[in-house]
Amino acid sequence: MDNQGTATQATPITELTGTRLSEVLQNALQKAEPLERVTDQMVLASNRARALQAQRAGTNAKYGVLVLPGILLFIGALVAQSEAVVGLVMFFVAVAILILLASSINKKHSTIITGIDAQLQSCEANIRALNQQYDWLYQQSYATFESIPEEYVNALALGTMTRFIANGRADNWKTCVDMFEEQKHRWILENNSAEALALQQQQL
User: Fold this and answer.
1) What is the DSSP string of 88-149?
2) 76: three-class secondary structure by DSSP
3) Residue-wise pLDDT tens digits, 19-50
4) Under CATH, what is the fold of the domain 17-203?
5) What is the pTM of this model?
């Protein structure tokens, strides 16, 4: 029994038909769906990390600009210092304002940056955890996917092919692939038509 089971599992997918092919595709589909969910989560987490990095850079630039008026006031005070007492008073006032402004801005800036950094660390930890989860899932599923070409190891392809067999429209791997490629081409045409129609409606 064990030898027969091993021989069946080793059979190339191109030689499988009917019920056996359907079983292999359904098994692969069950393995592919969790992988795709993790992949989607990884994409969302990566996009979030990039958004946070952009927010951090923007915050640094914003608070850098806010310091500029204080620096200009300080420079103006230095220039006016030559005018005896008035210049001296302006100088000390400018220094005091600059110190207060810099302190306030630095406090707000530090608070915001600290918050962004904490979110970034959490996001990066989440990405690492998702990567580990993906690797573990793939290792558990590798034997299932081994005989299936990589471009068809996804829920859309496997689910569509399984339905073709269940509906009696296909009975072997080649027919499944041919029909799926035809269906995929139709989906692309329909999507392009929908986008063109939406663009026309926007221009009206």
Assistant:
1) HHHHHHHHHHHHHHHHHHHHHHHHHHHHHHHHHHHHHHHHHHHHHHHHHHHHHHHHHHTTS-
2) helix
3) 889 998 998 898 888 888 888 888 888 888 88
4) Helix Hairpins (1.10.287)
5) 0.60
